[in-house]
Write a structure and sequence with these properties.
This protein is α+β, with helices and mostly antiparallel strands. The chain has 8 helices and 14 strands. Strand 8, helix 4 and strand 9 form a beta-alpha-beta unit.
């Protein structure tokens, strides 16, 4: 049987098949020209239209009404339905079914709602597995095994049992310690470097703030193998420069991660 694995962490909704990683995208949605747009395409409007972006529908997974309809979707469950349909169209192909790796904080009622949504889309769900269990690939004899999962809006620490089979023995959810918070810490630090270098504050304009978010993944990758990185932001025909220090960034992120 040809199965696709879907990991439903809204910071990086991902699918894996026989060809490896098929896609990875965040759980964002926005309405554009009357149509719901999801993932990276929606993230491009994260700071341009922050009040129109939906980012908690995967976390909530409920039939609760949205503050305003979004592309024909009226509830959080409608958004999950539409986004899951789009994901399955990308990942399904010739697949006979799917195995879903799901957040451990979802309730039985939420899992039932998810299965109902999948059934409506003719997705043959062959299994559900806790994300922390799915990530545990071997036994660590004599060790304390913890799994850290970071979604858009919170972090989850799971203490894993390893007695013959892997289980979740305890779980702690830390609100406000998600990817959005960590990205904000990075962006605010970067903005301060521009203010210090030239008194130019990229957070004062939505377009330049969005520019920081769009380039953040590449800038962070650039700090993997160097201690300092030169940054540039274009603005109204000018280009402003600053330097990002790896140690300063790690210090800021370390303070943000203290609750974890």
């Amino acid at each position: 049987m040809n199965l696709v694995g879907l990991e439903l962490n809204d910071s990086a909704l991902a699918a894996v098949g026989d060809r490896g990683l098929l896609f990875s995208e965040p759980g964002y949605a926005i309405e554009r020209d009357g149509i719901a747009v999801f993932g990276d395409a929606a993230r491009k409007f994260l700071r341009l239209s922050p009040r129109r972006i939906a980012s908690r529908y995967w976390e909530a997974l409920a039939e609760q009404a949205l503050p305003r309809p979004l592309g024909g979707c009226r509830t959080e469950a409608d958004l999950v339905h539409a986004h899951l349909q789009r994901l399955w169209e990308q990942a399904g192909g010739e697949a006979d079914g799917a195995v879903l790796a799901v957040p451990g904080h979802w309730t039985v009622a939420q899992l039932g709602l998810l299965l109902g949504i999948a059934q409506e889309q003719a997705i043959n769900v062959r299994g559900l597995v806790d994300l922390a269990v799915a990530a545990t690939r071997q036994e660590y004899v004599g060790g304390l095994l913890l799994h850290l999962d970071i979604s858009l809006h919170h972090a989850t620490v799971s203490r894993m049992g390893q007695q013959g089979k892997v289980t979740v023995e305890d779980r702690y959810v830390i609100a406000g310690a998600g990817v959005e918070r960590l990205e904000r810490v990075c962006v605010e630090l970067i903005a301060r470097q521009f203010v210090d270098a030239s008194r130019f504050d990229p957070l004062l304009e939505a377009e330049t703030e969005q520019y920081l978010y769009d380039h953040l993944p590449r800038w962070l990758a650039g700090l993997n193998d160097r201690n300092r990185l030169s940054l540039a932001v274009p603005y109204r025909g000018n280009e402003f420069s600053a330097t990002l220090d790896r140690a300063a960034l790690l210090d800021a992120l370390g303070r943000a991660c203290e609750p974890v």
